[in-house]
Every structure is written in structure tokens, then in C-alpha cells.
Amino acid sequence: MTDALSLDAKQTALVLIDLQKGTLARQTAPHSAQDVLSRSVRLAERFRGAGALVVLVNVSFSPDGSDRLTQPTDESFPAGVTPLGWDEISPDLGRDLKDIVITKRQWGAFYGTQLDLQLRRRGIRTIVIGGIATNFGVESTARDAFEHGYALVFVEDAMAGLSNEAHLFAVKTIFPRIGRIRSTEQVLAALK
Fold first, then answer.
1. pLDDT at site 174
2. pTM for this one?
3. Under a CB-based contact definition with an 8 Å cutoff, are residues 44 and 87 in contact?
4. Alpha-carbon span 75 to 179, nearest angstrom
5. Which end of the chain is more exposed for a tag (fewer CB within 10 A), N or C?
């Protein structure tokens, strides 16, 4: 049985990873990208209404791609020209003047960005996290957040992987060791 969740709006931030046009166009599992987006919209509206911080993270690269990671790997991401606007955060999420927007150049949202600085300046101690893809951007950001000392809450139905297996591996094997896993409804009810 899981412990009851209580979230203090003054010390909690919602961090949504890569809910941008190019990522939302992909096939995801076990939740569709559209379902992840609609749940994330509900979360963002509730967090803003409670006075909690919302952080919208996207991934983008320079037009010539020179700031992409290019180490040799056994399996690389598909090469090619990225369509114009692929990196735009979904307008469905809205944007409040108090929201923070972080653009990253790799999977995780901490390295090479101001995310940690901006969270600490606002007294954030807990991160509620969702987005696409569970085992890439969400997991990489969560691992860094854990190592930076933040408490984590994973919104399982507000994230999805590129396959059901990848999503479930992270949710069942990695996330329970670095945070708490809850549903959108449980998080909405826990925010005070």
C-alpha cells in the first residue's frame, strides 16, 4: 500500500518534459500522447491555480545541429531534417507569466540549464514529473533531480514511452527507488 500523498504548493513544482509538437506526434505507450497531454493540461491548470510552480521543458538544437550530442553509440536516433516548429511546446498547456520554460540539448533537463538554480531560488523541494518519453527525458531528468536532493512524484498516467515495455521498465524498476508513483487524480487531490 502506498502512503497518502500531500503536496505543499509553495514547495512543489510540476515539471513537464518534451510536450512539444515533434514529440507529441510520435506513437507512445501505454498512454497515447494525446492522453498524456490532456492529463498534463489538467495538472498544469491545478498547479497554477494553487500558486505552485509549473516548468515546461522542451528539447531543441541549433539550426546546424552543432549542439547535438554525437558520441558513438550502437543505436542512434534517426537522422534527418527536423520539421519547422517541432520543438514548440504544445499551446494546449498554456503559459502563465510565472511558468518557467527550460530548453535542453540532451535527455535530462538539469545539465547545462538553469533548472536547478530556478527551483532552488523558489524554495522548491518536491518535483512532480510527467512527459514523453518515460525512459528518456523523464527518467534522465528524474535521476538528476534525485541526485540533486529533490523529492520526486511520478505521474504515471501523464507520461508515456515509445513502447509499453520501456515505460513499464522505468515505472516498475527505476522510479520506485527514487520517488513515489501516483496517478493524475491522486496528484490533483494531494496538492494543497
1. 98
2. 0.93
3. no
4. 29
5. N
